Amino acid sequence: MTQARPGLGVGMVGHAFMGAAHSQAWRTAGRFFDLPLTPDMAVLCGRNADTARAAADRLGWRDVETDWKELLTRDDVQLVDVCTPGDTHAAIAIAALDAGKHVLCEKPLANTVDEARAMVAAAQRAQASGVRSMVGFNYRRVPAVSLARRLVEQGRIGEVRHVRASYLQDWIVDPEAPLVWRLQAERAGSGALGDIGAHVVDLAQFVTGDRLSGVSGLTETFVRERPLPSGEGRGPVTVDDAALFVGRFAGGALASFEATRFATGRKNQIRLEVNGSAGSLAFDFEQMNELQFFDGTEDPDVAGFRRILVTEPGHPYAGAWWPPGHGLGYEHTFTHEVVDLVRDVAAGSDPVPSFADGLQVQLVLDAVVRSAAAGSGWQAVEES
Amino acid sequence: MTQARPGLGVGMVGHAFMGAAHSQAWRTAGRFFDLPLTPDMAVLCGRNADTARAAADRLGWRDVETDWKELLTRDDVQLVDVCTPGDTHAAIAIAALDAGKHVLCEKPLANTVDEARAMVAAAQRAQASGVRSMVGFNYRRVPAVSLARRLVEQGRIGEVRHVRASYLQDWIVDPEAPLVWRLQAERAGSGALGDIGAHVVDLAQFVTGDRLSGVSGLTETFVRERPLPSGEGRGPVTVDDAALFVGRFAGGALASFEATRFATGRKNQIRLEVNGSAGSLAFDFEQMNELQFFDGTEDPDVAGFRRILVTEPGHPYAGAWWPPGHGLGYEHTFTHEVVDLVRDVAAGSDPVPSFADGLQVQLVLDAVVRSAAAGSGWQAVEES
Amino acid sequence: MTQARPGLGVGMVGHAFMGAAHSQAWRTAGRFFDLPLTPDMAVLCGRNADTARAAADRLGWRDVETDWKELLTRDDVQLVDVCTPGDTHAAIAIAALDAGKHVLCEKPLANTVDEARAMVAAAQRAQASGVRSMVGFNYRRVPAVSLARRLVEQGRIGEVRHVRASYLQDWIVDPEAPLVWRLQAERAGSGALGDIGAHVVDLAQFVTGDRLSGVSGLTETFVRERPLPSGEGRGPVTVDDAALFVGRFAGGALASFEATRFATGRKNQIRLEVNGSAGSLAFDFEQMNELQFFDGTEDPDVAGFRRILVTEPGHPYAGAWWPPGHGLGYEHTFTHEVVDLVRDVAAGSDPVPSFADGLQVQLVLDAVVRSAAAGSGWQAVEES
Amino acid sequence: MTQARPGLGVGMVGHAFMGAAHSQAWRTAGRFFDLPLTPDMAVLCGRNADTARAAADRLGWRDVETDWKELLTRDDVQLVDVCTPGDTHAAIAIAALDAGKHVLCEKPLANTVDEARAMVAAAQRAQASGVRSMVGFNYRRVPAVSLARRLVEQGRIGEVRHVRASYLQDWIVDPEAPLVWRLQAERAGSGALGDIGAHVVDLAQFVTGDRLSGVSGLTETFVRERPLPSGEGRGPVTVDDAALFVGRFAGGALASFEATRFATGRKNQIRLEVNGSAGSLAFDFEQMNELQFFDGTEDPDVAGFRRILVTEPGHPYAGAWWPPGHGLGYEHTFTHEVVDLVRDVAAGSDPVPSFADGLQVQLVLDAVVRSAAAGSGWQAVEES
């Protein structure tokens, strides 16, 4: 019987955009995937009791806490899901791991490299006693992206020569858009670079199975002052609006990256193209159920980028859902994340992306920041 | 408080493909949309008790029944959701309505026009006592399709001149694919025409706000015998593999329709294009988050089909979900269906598509069958 | 030496749209393709001497005649290229063939089946004495279309099951567009059906290598009266604005066709999709350098419609032009037509499409007209 | 009478790929555009007399010379068209200009900045006596690209914030592809950067109407040794296979550029996207007859990138050719180049792109090379 399976009590911190996405994932994962543990949406934590209670009702959490530290003492919480802004990730995640709770932490792992290193250390300590941790780069788990990784791994595109990745949004093109927390360095750590650039750095490294070794970049803040959210007065924007960089992978591939919130008309466009000696792959999140694949070993008469609808039973994650051709949406990436995490927890295996993977992304972003500050000069990505 | 809202007890009959889709919708609707009634997934009904119990656990239903008639007597069921094959729709839906239960019935409404007429009569009787009914043409509630309807209603494409609609699949191209119930006339009523052609007939009529008045068509069964699902022996395919027809709308537009399960490489491609005197619209379910719109009143120098990402807050349904650019999937069409149905039930308004709308689609399909049987001669669509 | 090659004197009748396209073809063919005969643009024939002379200068013709009969007596004309409206095709082509001149005749072959039959008879008489004839269905010679034909011939898509073809334009959506000759039955013979429908009928038959055996269709004239080109008064539109039909191929495939001048936003969109038991092909003239090919024998994990850029050296015609990825335009279809015709003339082989092919297309259109006149009832395509 | 127009004698140096493209342009320009001077294809110059004669016959040139200096003394040559590899551009162009001949010079203007500066000086000297010069960045004259420029100029996208440009090819992915002159620094000057990167730098500057002020980049040679074309032995590749850089425009926009010959499956893909404060534009040469335009001032409900088919009478160059929807190909960019040049020569106005524009592109490429050599550090683009 399904209900005889052991449960996995979850406590989630934060209930904004990411909180809603994670809730849907926790609620849905076991309905479509055969999970060894049954997620129990035990507690939602938010600073304001009333707001948190309303969110818990709406999102489907049983209890509410207003202090995340309470989660660590509850017996009905075995896993802490961190959905807060980046400035609190380190404190919550480290404490949770040290308290023996598995941790799923939203990206970016932390706002600084030092915090990220401390989190990795905590994850390693915890791992010794069977406690698992994962950082939430959800776009890896778009079926088309997972398929891309699989094809690279199978050697279908040969040796990787080029990577081009961009994450384009336009939500603050209007100079009168307010100065929300994501535009404040002390809360968000970074702007487009850390918020969305982090995603494409992770995607590029995931799909290629390789790591950036050095970068050269620049950043820009186009609108340097914005209305305060309160409606009165204006304040300085202290993060980047856009970041561009070129880089090299350890394996020799060249790469270009771009992250911006000023690409008018591009709402949430994540593009990744990888060219190898034997083939190429291209992905665009605007058509998230498709992967473009060029097989360079084909007869040139019939070679061409093929648009694979990644909805076949044999495709990553797809078989658990609907028949071929019935696509998935944004939210399903989080469901897949939860599925894999729960399976790893049950199996005693280490989830990916690990905190170390998250740190490595931070190190890339850090190198970009250093390069931008130093006249775009080349900066090696530090060893994690 | 959210939980103070009155509940709406649901009993669902059937737990295969459609049952899974509907379950996800019932589970999700209230998490993203502000519903006046809180759906309660009370009972799942399936003929085999063990299978039904397992499905209920997996899909999230509290109780199980093996006879759908039991649903009609339960106080915790106010709405019956019919997800069975078409040959049982009429019996269940009519009994439920007569028992004062609201009904959501999967398409096609029925396997025969007579059954459909009886269902409409039952719906009308029930309506008098405040009982609601809806037929599940879910694709209407793809946000892009709803937006298309809105643009036509606003006059953005002028007078409709052309409609072309197709629903292409390829799941039985292999002549060794087994003779499942969908290929048997006595269970499915019809083949590609009734199963998927029904969807595009409804879409075309919905988007244009008009009705087909006559048709001329043909049908074909390419593979006339298939292996029995048991694995032993072969049996005759008694439904069409493909159907094509041309037609006229009451308002004067010309139309062409195609439904087939033999379009190799087309997994679930629903395409609809509408050309009007002032503009055009085009939709392709393979890119379900997009609507193509040509505004014929634009300066020709900058006129072109625009690819609208239908994920803006102002777009139908989209605002309840994620930020712009974060697309939805197949399953969300069912969630939208449930949201609208629950709101109508609470408001005492009549949901669409109504059973009468479902009957009208049946009448179109019936005219196609008559035309195909009579040398493709023109057949008027009967009045409902 | 190139110049030592024998010449082929050409006389062209008509110098409007088609005349300009053919002139560019005659001028260009030998510059990129190795031709056994060197085309000599000897004479341009137009009814008005001054207009014809100006056209000849602009288009590159040496002499001018005002009566096409003069072409038949000139020793410097071995080939007559007929670019006039359809009502004069039969008279000119038959006289030219009987005078021993090779003939290239624009489509549609004729305005009536009777005329077309007479032209075929003339072509057969002429063939006996080595005189060649070709009808100008230029779209066959888009490299992507020729490649599609080749792939069907090689069995790459298996047995053809479905054909859907449409030719969409919007040039007379405006009800105040004037009553030009193409809208008058006595000059044009037919409207959208004969002008552009003829093209897609030919394309579908060419690519499949099969012939339509029967059809059921309807036609419509949305705007029944238009301003006279003179600017004074209005006159009746005597041809169809749009035509739709379904049909069956001799080999068993189902087909749908549409031709319209009322598809707002579609300027010259020719689409053809062919689904076979082993694969599919799709073409859209708006991306004329591309062919979509789905190979149904591929592993489903990597199967998808591939976008072949038809610019490789091994692709039909492409090798004579530019390096891969440097596309061709509309006009090149005429150049390819001329290249093949000149080679056939030199080799003593029969060009395709032949007049008999042109007649066969007329017979299909004729069956559509008969069906439309008879309540869309099925009409067999007459034997040619 | 057309033939009464004065002629413009042309002498072309070189008859390979570019020679064939230019010949088609000279032959065609006056057939579709109303030119004030009639081009006379007087002399083709090639080092080998027999080869040159054969080329002249094939390409349509009257006379042949084997020494380009002879062109400068011929009275029937008023314009010299330089289609040779880059190492000879400076010598030929400067001598021609000094001899009073107008010059059309293929890109890149020269192999070194010093040569380019000398050419600009010669062009300025010549201009004083009414002698014109133009550098052949043909892609500017794709109608869609010219339309993009027009829309930027009209302020339709507001202030430019982002430019991303790439030119991807794959012709030497195979490590056994031979060491042709384009892979030798002494002939070609540069590799992907100078050959194709130059095009996208020009395009980006042309469309934005702005100039790059600084860059940071890197280059790579993936395959460092290749078979000699003779078939015996191998030699070193002395140019880059790929180049990537980021940069800033004088007006404040950020930019990224990429040029490579190692993008498997990309045959000749030129992409340009420009994001402004009020809209965006995107172009892809694989669909050269289309321009994507996002109008940020639209109601968000109907905003979207619109695919403009750039074939309308009001579009740049398009009106001279075919009706709407009948696209052009690669070669037409050269025809447009010739048309504009001839008109400027006749009008006594200065053609664009000028030699100074060509120099400016060289200065950008030079800054990239310097940056790549200096650890990707920022390099200002020198003033021309």
TrEMBL record, chains A, B, C, D:
Annotated SUPFAM superfamilies: Glyceraldehyde-3-phosphate dehydrogenase-like, C-terminal domain, NAD(P)-binding Rossmann-fold domains
Gfo/Idh/MocA-like oxidoreductase N-terminal domain location: 9-127
Pfam families recorded: GFO_IDH_MocA, GFO_IDH_MocA_C3
Protein keywords: Oxidoreductase
Residue ranges annotated for the GFO/IDH/MocA-like oxidoreductase domain, each copy included: 147-281
Molecular functions per Gene Ontology: nucleotide binding; oxidoreductase activity
Record has Oxidoreductase as a keyword: yes
Protein name in the entry: Gfo/Idh/MocA family oxidoreductase
Record organism: Pseudonocardia broussonetiae
